[in-house]
Amino acid sequence: MIAPKKSLGQNFLIDNKILEKITNLVDIKNETVFEVGPGTGNLTEFILKQNPKMVVVIEKDKNLAEKLKKKFEEKITIINDDVLEVNECSLFNEKVIVYGNLPYNISTEILSKWIINLKKNFWFYNLILMFQKEVADRIIAEVNTKNYGRLSVLSNWKLDIKKIIDIKPESFYPKPKVDSSVLFFSPKKQFHKINDPKNLEKITRIFFNHRRKMLKNPFNQLFNGNSEVIDKLKIDLKLRPQNLDFETYYKLTSEYEALRS
Asked: Model pTM?
């Protein structure tokens, strides 16, 4: 067994029943699959059983990348690089299905990067991703709940999300100290138009930076107390950031862009 690296947040999924369940979520026969963080290739093996057209994996750990090459030879294409440094949109000429047992320490960075890079067309059909359970709970959180925040607003902008399964530590090597969750993301056909997703990231960052305080301060920081925006969106500045729903944040972003155009 390969020794996992704590610095890379490596926890290898070894439960065959769960691996099979994950790969059976969508029909990947004759499709191109992109797997992030394949580790020892446990999930990769199950993906290959479904007869995809092509499997591309990205693995930062050089040692693991070399072992994957020996294990699978020409069956997969291996990118030995950091997923945060790669422009995924330029890797493929067609839409792909993405699988990822994401490293806990950078999972939110990866997802946020992909969302912010969704400027025009989707480069994927679906994302099937594993997160630390508490992160997954933040992603799927609803307004007016304690887990609702920046990640919830960003994730639900262009994507429909559902939880597939919670996974106990015993299904991994080494056993993490927390539960994990698999989430299934699919592109929305209808979503609020935002010119630059980085503005949505900025709006949510500033509003949720002080999530227990009233909306007045972050609103004034962004809009200089613009009463027209308050009236148009019917915002009560005595509320707190977790009291504004998804759509209000998207509309706020559009108003922010309009004032700076």
From this structure: 0.93
174 and 210, same domain (yes or no): no
Say how far apart CA 34 and CA 176 lie, in whole Å. Answer: 25
Q: Residue 63's domain spans which residues? A: 6-187
Coil, strand, or helix at residue 61? coil
Residue 112, C-beta contacts closer than 8 angstroms, at least 6 positions apart: 151, 154, 201
Amino acid occupying residue 57: V
Cis bond upstream, residue 176 (ω within 30): no
Alpha carbon 257 to chain centroid, angstroms: 24
What pLDDT, on the 0 to 100 scale, is given for residue 8?
42
What CATH number does residue 250 fall under? Answer: 1.10.8.100
Share of the chain above pLDDT 90, in %: 87
Q: Is the domain of 95 the same as that of 201?
A: no
Q: Do residue 120 and residue 235 come from a single domain?
A: no
Identify the band that residue 10 occupies on the pLDDT scale cut at 50, 70 and 90: low
Mean pLDDT of 72-85: 96
